[in-house]
């Protein structure tokens, strides 16, 4: 069996065009959605990610700002900046680029963001709403994965879904979304015994464990749908996922490529969350 590719690039382009069309039709007197991306330090990878987000905002008509703080800034000074953005009516979305320097407590920063402007969906109130089955702003990567799954037409209700990786950013919210869609979900972590056996049961496998090419074809159930959330740069410069792509393609029915799979969808859902946050402020 040769797996069909789930192309995130084309679906993300459709979503961006829908957002651009909505914003273009707003009355001139209405403030366009505004996103502020906060970056601490000058990590090259973070700078690339932020740059891609800013370009995506510009392309659809979202006003964007990129605020950079020095790596030695204090938690207090960053909190003061977040509180200022919370009060600014022209700012609808606030995103703090992770990871933060070790000297800054990320939990206190993320909890300080107004949950109505939390376009990453990491605030405890947004996480709790997702858990309770009343989602508002959902973490971008899991939301993007659900759109990719929907685009394949694969039935989620009743499916056996396995999520490998239990982070607050991807794994846990991913499990909640799959549960809400009617899947039977197993959430694995770094301590899971016999991970291969769990993976081999999966009709839908989400790989988000942060280890390059860890999920091999021998771990896949024939005909499974495999979503690769990981992204790593090899010494050669090649981008790799958490999935060993070549071997998995021989077993799975659908698989996301790296790059061009989940990554573009994460940014598309960030734009969608920013639009939603702005719409929710309208009278």
Mean pLDDT: 95
Q: How many DSSP helices? A: 10
Using the alpha-carbon principal axes, give the shape.
globular
CATH class of the largest domain: Alpha Beta
CATH fold node name of the largest domain: Rossmann fold
CATH superfamily of the largest domain: NAD(P)-binding Rossmann-like Domain
Instruction: Report the strand count.
Output: 11
Number of spatially distinct domains: 2
State the distance separating the first and last CA atoms: 53 Å
Report the radius of gyration as a whole number of Å. Answer: 19 Å
How much of the residues is beta strand, in percent? 15-25%
Largest sheet: 6 strands, parallel
3D structure, described in words:
With 283 residues, this protein is α/β, with parallel strands linked by helices. The chain folds into two domains: 33-129, Rossmann fold (3-Layer(aba) Sandwich); 140-264, Rossmann fold. 41% of the residues lie in helices and 16% in strands. The protein contains ten helices and eleven strands. The chain has helices spanning 8-24, 44-60, 75-87, 106-112, 124-131, 140-152, 171-180, 195-201, 245-249, 262-279; strands spanning 4-5, 34-40, 63-69, 93-96, 160-164, 184-188, 204-207, 225-228, 232-233, 239-240, 254-255. The strands form three sheets. The chain has a six-stranded parallel sheet, sandwiched between helices. A hairpin with a 5-residue loop joins β9 and β10 (239-240). It is globular and about 55 Å long. It starts with a strand and ends with a helix. The mean pLDDT is 95.
């Amino acid at each position: 069996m040769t797996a069909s590719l789930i192309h995130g690039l084309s679906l993300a382009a459709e979503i961006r065009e829908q957002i651009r069309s909505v914003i273009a039709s707003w009355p001139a007197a209405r403030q366009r959605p505004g996103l502020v991306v906060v970056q601490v330090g000058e990590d090259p990878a973070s700078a690339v990610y932020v740059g891609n987000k800013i370009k995506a905002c510009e392309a659809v008509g979202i006003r964007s700002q990129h605020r950079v703080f020095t790596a030695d800034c204090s938690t207090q000074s960053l909190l003061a900046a977040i509180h200022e953005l919370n009060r600014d009516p022209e700012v609808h979305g606030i995103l703090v680029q992770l990871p933060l320097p070790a000297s800054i407590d990320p939990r206190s920063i993320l909890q300080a963001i107004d949950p109505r402007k939390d376009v990453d969906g990491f605030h405890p109130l947004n996480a709790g709403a997702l858990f309770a089955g009343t989602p508002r702003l959902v973490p971008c990567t899991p939301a993007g994965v659900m759109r990719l799954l929907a685009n394949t037409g694969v039935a989620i209700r009743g499916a056996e879904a396995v999520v490998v990786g239990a982070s607050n950013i991807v794994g846990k919210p991913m499990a909640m979304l799959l549960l809400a869609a009617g899947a039977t979900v197993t959430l694995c972590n770094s301590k899971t015994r016999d991970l291969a056996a769990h993976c081999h049961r999966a009709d839908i496998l989400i790989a988000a464990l942060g280890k390059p090419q860890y999920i091999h074809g021998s771990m896949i159930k024939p005909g499974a749908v495999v979503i690769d959330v990981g992204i790593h740069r090899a010494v050669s410069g090649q981008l790799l996922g958490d999935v060993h792509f070549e071997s998995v393609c021989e077993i799975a029915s659908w698989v996301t490529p790296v790059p061009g799979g989940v990554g573009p969808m994460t940014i598309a859902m960030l734009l969608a969350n920013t639009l939603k946050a702005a719409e929710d402020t309208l009278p």
